[in-house]
Every structure is written in structure tokens, then in C-alpha cells.
Amino acid sequence: MPENTPSASELRPTHPLALAPVAAPPASVDGFVRRFLQNLNFDQGVALSTSDDNDRYLALAGTVRDYLMARWLDDQAQQSRQQSKTVCYLSAEYLLGRQLDNNLLAARLTEIATEALAQCGIDIDDLRALEIEPGLGNGGLGRLAACFIDSLATMSIPTIGYGIRYEYGIFRQAFADGQQVEQPDAWLRLGSPWDFPHPEAAQTISFGGRTETYDDDGVERTRWVPEWNVLAVPYNMMVPGYHNGRVNTLRLWRAVATNAFDLHTFNSGDYVASVRAQTFAENISKVLYPEDSTPQGKELRLQQQYFFVAASIADFVEHVLPDGFDLTKLPERVIFQLNDTHPVIGVPELMRVLVDEKGMEWDAAWAITQKCFAYTCHTLLPEALEVWSVDLLGRLLPRHLEIIYRINDAFLLEVRERFGDDEMLIRDMSIIGEHPFRSVRMAYLATVAGSKVNGVAELHSQLLRDNVLKDFARMWPEKFTNVTNGVTPRRFLRLANPELSTLITETLGAGWTVDLERLRGLEAYADDPEFRERFAAVKAANKRRLSRVLAARDGTTIDDGHLLDVMIKRLHEYKRQTLKVLHIVSAYDEIVSGRVPVEKVQPRTFLFGAKAAPGYAMAKHIIHLINAVGEVVNADPRVEGRLKVLYPSNYNVTLAESIIPAADLSEQISLAGKEASGTGNMKLALNGALTIGTDDGANVEIRQLVGDDNFFLFGMSEPEVEALWAEGYRPADFYHEDERLRRAIDLIAAGAFSGGDRSVFEPLISNLLYDDRFMALADFGSYLDAQERVDAAYADQDAWVRSAILNVARSGFFSSDRAMRDYLDRIWHATPVH
Ligand SMILES: *Cc1c(COP(=O)(O)O)cnc(C)c1O
To answer: 678 C-alpha to center of ligand 1: Å?
Structure first.
């Protein structure tokens, strides 16, 4: 290189544009049109006249991105400059829903974009419909993560959401002959305009191998000698706050084969093996496990968990913290929130980083680690508590297993000091379980390591303290707390229900979107006939809108005058979709047996939305039964169209946004003590559906808030469930005692919904009559009585609408903004940065 020629790295920008901060395009229709056409021409490489809808959608998404970009870059720079505490939300799932509308709303661009596209001859609704939602989650847990990061951005809390960019998200559900068929969700097929890959910020993540000790200046240390690596490449998504100019980051990791890994095999001359190895590495982020609550202990799943957590911790330590940061101060800069046990392997990983890589003493590292994690438990079902076999964990992560053993040794010593040598207690509390196989109990590891442990509704947190984690709660009562879940009012009211939003804004002003308690102001209008009329008109319009959506996708409709009764949630025995079906079958039987004159029947449309885990046979039988009952009931002329069963396939966030605003009745009928919280219940109440529900999860709090007059309570309480279980649950007793129940069961068993074939639903009926851990038959009578109260209440439309208004008015507590405030006060102690 000739002398005096500066190298590239010495070049300093001198052009004025290069010195100025990034500027957003002008927030005007003209500015939007110009940028949109630029994106269409230069990014999509097409002219407006030759572009198709997908080009236009991608250009539109790119334009919205451009508007948010300046703020995003600014907030990222600020995050590394400032020493404020960051919430790192670690979640294996984010069920985001569509991005376009949400981002337009957050950036105040909805009207500008609509008009700008209209001036280009494009109807924005056509482009909206094109977006495939990233289904990177199964259900409630993943949707909760998405609501939380929305609220944190809206509250200007420095946050990074960390997760996995699955190439295939939750499967697409279709029905064939009434049975579920799963199809791959190729959500990236048409491009992914909302995320930005950053290969330069990739992390190398190791697996396998062995550990060894070595002498480090007279100190014996341990290091991990792994066997293979993958690259974790971050893809950043924008998480814009609502109208506050804040843009946080959701960083999702994708697995890519490392060069080193490739070369090693390649040099051995086996090209085919080398390519296969590449595929093997990339499998890690290939597919979301479609399970709801029964972890399968599969090796690839553990690989996924370690992969994203190790990448996230390394990313935070190396890229987010400033160079030379004093790691003893880590708890002042970060809290890693563990969304269920999926990210718990992060505990030994942080210990490994601090002790093995940074040379910290064990005790100092443990003190730091304990302050940096907090754990949210999401279940009460014992089978849902994740365990990893020691064999598998030791093979995949040998150093982590050693660290877990050492954590456990110290912990069990503490237990002995505290409670004496009670060997039974030691076994019960040990992080290592011995039965039925030697395993690591991840919930226990999280509880031991976490600064706080929270349940997700009052009842759930109480049951965690009293049952699931009772020994731990006795040891550390101050560790345990509750944060009742919430949902974002931006997506689930403002966007999903524009007409109700307009009515609320006209009545109360605009502030409710970020201060949902203001909905209380609607109480004063519950008795105002004019307001009631407008409220009822909104509900009716939402039903017609849903009817159009269903007509377009399935050719079904919702008839005027029908009560819309919805049960939308994952298919699981504990949620008891069977109880709902038994109600429908019973109502049908009453008509066709002539016990109730058809003209006396309140017209109702029963709407289900639910996916079953592909390996969950009983759940699939239930899906089949719902569809089979629907086919018979909907076609039977004796019913005169008064009962109708709809089961649109592929329930997801997008479909939820159409169904929820239209619903009259929200079915939350889990066996008491089984549903941790539920969030669907909150979304529906917030949109003016009345709940029929058990005293379970957040139903308890919903009922307390909306009042008994505006809620249909039924079924056993949690202590009653325990008592019946202890005494011995005999479903056959209920069958024999309740004639309506017997007739409904007999109708199914006789083949009335399976063309006379008695074998089809035999497993399901046998389960209900002899096994059913979730005691559907025990609550049937009480459920039917409650449904009669529903019919009676609906007959008085004025009173019903009043109750619906009061449900909206009193649901402000269920905003995820409030949930975030509770996490901040009780667990995170982080503050907003404006
Ligand atoms: C809210 C939501 C859930 C959770 O529903 P629950 O009734 O609480 O189980 C599941 N799936 C989707 C798509 C949701 O939006």
C-alpha cells in the first residue's frame, strides 16, 4: 500500500449527510407515496404497473419500517450508552400475529398509508390480507410474551426479547373428514419484511464433548472441550411502542452451520457428509415443537433451548454491555426473565460464562446469577413440569451438568441446615430426580436460582405456594409472588375492534389505549339507553364482519339473532372442550326428542377454534367429535337452524382478532385448579363477552371485578375438586344420576354422530366414563344449569347489553401494561428511559 494513503478504517465521513442522524421520511401522504414507490422500484425491483400484490405488500412493509428506523437506531444506541437496567425476556415462543397493522398504528401512520396507497390505486385491505402471521408459538404462553414486549415498548422500558426464529412455526391446521391434518407453516415463503439478519453479530454455540481441568497459575479450573458448534445468527424485529416513538428489539436466533464444522468434514473428503452436517446444524431452528403442555424430552428440543439462551446471554454480555463492563455489576444492568422452564438452562450457562470464561470465583458468580434471573411458572399439571434426563443433558452439555450438580449440592446442604436430615424432604426438593429415571427438574433449578418465582394469576400463585413448590415456599417465602397476566389493549381492542374503540374514544377520550383503567368511565353509561343501543350495534356489526370472514374462508355464516357462544383455545382435556360438546349434544337431544319445542330454543351459534398437538390422540378424538356433531346438528331440519356449530380450522391470532369482538359468550370451563391463568378469557371480557366459567385461573379475578351478576359461575371449586378426588371420583355415578347427561352420552355412544358406527368415539366415551382426570361429568349438571341462566339472561337484551358494557368497563385491570407495572415493581426494578 503506497504511503500516506489512508486505509479504509481511517476514512472519516465528511459529507454532511453522513454526519446527520438518520431521518424518517416526512409523515405526509406525499412523503409516504414517494418512499413506497422507491421501495417498490429499488427493493422489489418492479414498476407500480407491473407489480403484484406481494411486491406491493413488501414495499408497504418496507415503508413502514423506514419510518420506524430512525427511532430504532436511536434507541439501540441509547441502550449501549446508558447504564439503565434492561429487561431480557427469554422465551422459546412469541405468538406475534400480523405486524403491518400494529406497526402502522404504533407509528400513527394508518390514515396516511391508507390514503397514500389509495392514491397509487391500491386498496390497503388487499395487502393486509396477504400477511402471513409469524406463528412462533403454540398458544397462551407465546401470545403472553408478545403482549408483554408490546407493553414494555409502550412504557419505554429498555427491553430485548430473545427467542428462536423457527423456519416453520406452529403447523397449519386443516380438517379432512372432520379430523385434524397438520400442514407445515411456511411463513417465510413470500419474504420476511419485518426482520433484519445480522450475520456479523452471530454467536458460536457449542455442544457435546467433555470437560477437563487445568492449572491456571496454581488455581485448578475447569473448561469445556465441546465436540461441535453451530452459528446463531440474530434476526432483529422492531417492537414499536404505541405513539411514544420508542422502538425496542425482538432478537430471534437462527441456526446456521459454522464454517469450521463444514471444513472439518469437508477436508476428510466426504462432501455429502459435509452437507448433511450442515443440515443437521440448521435443524436446530427448523421447527417449533407443537406441544402445549407435555414436554417430550427430545434432544433437539434441548438443543433449541440451549442454543437460544446461550446466544442471548453471550449477545447481552458482549454486544449490549459496554466494553470492559465490570461483571460484578451485572444485576444492576439486566434481569433475565425466564418464561416458563424452557430457558432455564441459562442458569448454568451464566455460571459457566462467569466462572470458566471470566475467571470469577464460584460463590461470587452464584450471588450474581441469583440476582440476574427470575422465573415465571405457567402450569399446575405435574406432567407439564419439564425434566431432562441426566444422560441426555450430560451428553449434550457436560459442563452444564457438572454445574447443576454443584448448585444442587450447595442447595441441599442449605436444606439440611434449615430442616435437618429429613431424607424424604431432601429427595423431594433435590434438583436431581431419581424416579422414574435420573433427571434434572428444571422448575426446581429455576426456583433455586431465581430471585423471584411468580405464578400468573392469584389462584395459580397460591396453588404453587401450597402444592407444586410448597417446600421451596416454606424455605423462601419472600421469593414467591404473583403477577396476574394481561393482554395488550392495542392489538386486542384498538386494532381488533375498531368500532368499539371509536365508541369508547368518543365517550371517554383517547387516553384509554395506554391507561386501560379509564374504561371504568363506561360504567356511567351502562344504563344510558342511547349508549346501550350504540354498543349493541357495534356487537352486531362485529358479528356480521366475522360472518363475512367465515363466509370467505369456509362458506359458513352466523345468522342474525343468534347468541354467539365461543370456545377458542388449544385443545386439551383440562380445558374441557368435551363439556361444551356434551352441552351441544344435550341441547340437540332436547329438540329432536321433542322434550323442548324448537321454537322455545334460544338460537345459538357455537364456535370453536383449537389446534391439538399432533401426538395427542385424545385431543384429536375431541376435534373429530366436535366436527361430527356439527355436521349432524347443522343439517338436521328438526333443529330449524336454531343451533349451529362452527369450527373454522387453523385458529391463530389473526382469526382470534375477528372472533373476539363478535363474541357474546366466553367459555372458560377448565376444571378448577388446572388453568394457570388464561388470557383468552381477558380478551373476550374486554370486548364485551360475558363469561361462563369455573372458579379457575384468572376467571376468579374476572368474576370479582365484573361482579357475579355479570358472570355465569358454575362447577366445583378447587378445594371441592381435591375433596372429590380424595374420596374417589366415580364418573358413572354422575352418568346414572343425571338423565340429560345419560341421554347425551348414549347418543354419542350409539353412533348418532358417526353414521351408526359405535366404535368411532368409543375411546372418548370410555375415557369420560372411567378415567377422566378432568372430571367433565362431575361438572356437567352445574354447567347445564348455568347455560339455562345464560339463555334466560340473553332473552332480556337490555340487561344483557348492560352486563356486556360492565364487562368492558371493569376489565381495565387485565391490560398487559398493568402486568408489566407489577413485574417492574415486584421483580425487575427497572425504570423507563425516555
Ligand atoms: C390468547 C390466545 C390464546 C390463549 O387462549 P386461552 O383461552 O387463554 O388458552 C391461544 N391462542 C391464541 C391465538 C390467542 O390469541
So the answer is: 7
Compute CA distances 657 → 24, 62, 414, 736, 741, whole Å: 30, 24, 50, 42, 34
3-state secondary structure 364-410: HHHHHHHHHEEEECCCCCHHHCCEEEHHHHHHHCHHHHHHHHHHHHH
Nearest atom (ligand 1) to Cα of 677: 8
Which CATH class, in words, describes the domain spanning 489-814? Answer: alpha beta
Chain Cα centroid distance, residue 347: 22
Mutation test of ligand 1: which of 138, 147, 570 has the most ligand atoms closer than 8 Å to its C-beta?
570
Compute, in angstroms, the gap from residue 675 CA to the centroid of ligand 1.
Answer: 12
Q: Is the pTM of this model over 0.85?
A: yes
161 lines ligand 1 (CB under 6 A): no
- 570 classed as catalytic: yes
Residue 62 clears pLDDT 80, i.e. is over it: yes
Residue pointed to by grid coordinates 370451563: 669
CATH code, 83-98+133-485+821-828: 3.40.50.2000
pLDDT tens digits for range 112-170: 999 999 999 999 999 999 999 999 999 999 999 999 999 999 999 999 999 999 999 99
Encoded amino acid at 202, one letter: A
- Which residue has the least CA distance to atom 3 on ligand 1? 140
In this structure, are residues 281 and 288 in contact, taking their beta carbons and an 8 Å threshold? no
Contact 98, 131 (CB under 8 A): yes
Active-site residue, 575 included? yes
The reply to whether ligand 1 has any atom less than 6 angstroms from the CB of 408 is no
CA dihedral sign of residues 392, 393, 396, 399: negative
Nearest Cα residue to atom 9 of ligand 1: 569
Distance 247 CA to ligand 1 centre (A): 25
Residues of each domain in the chain carrying CATH 3.40.50.2000? 83-98+133-485+821-828, 489-814
Q: What are the CA-CA distances from residue 740 to residues 638, 709, 762, 783 (Å)?
A: 19, 26, 19, 12
State yes or no: pLDDT of 246 exceeds 90.
yes
Phi/psi at 393 (5° precision) = -65, -40
